[in-house]
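Quick entry, no commentary yet.
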Amino acid sequence: MRKDIVDILACPMDKSPLELSIDEANGDEVIQGMLTCSKCGEKYPIEDRIPNLLPPEMRAGSTNQQKG
């Protein structure tokens, strides 16, 4: 995910701005990190350059389906 895209993203739960924390980057590209809602505190992972903005209950279901 490009670092500058965080400016147009919003929390799917309450539409508040997201804050970016970076674990691994390559130039302007975030490879691993986290997006955190500034209002509700929900966290959305960034893995392999892809932000997972699914609501928490849907994220848990998609992870279990992939493992099963």
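second:
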Amino acid sequence: MSVMEIKEAVKKLSLLERVKLLAELCEWPDDHWDRQMKEDAASGKFAGLNTLAEQEAKRGQLKSLEKGFQEG
């Protein structure tokens, strides 16, 4: 696979997939913030926010992060 083919494939990734790829390529270890966020998510700390986001999405009041980054 050529470098150009790789670049084109990366352009097709979602924002989350790009972040994961970048972290993997840079071998970024989880820092304290990452570990805390994972613990909070696992404990259900964000459940209320997730519910609110789902409700707003159903009402059409959210836009995707990818679209927001492309516009801004």
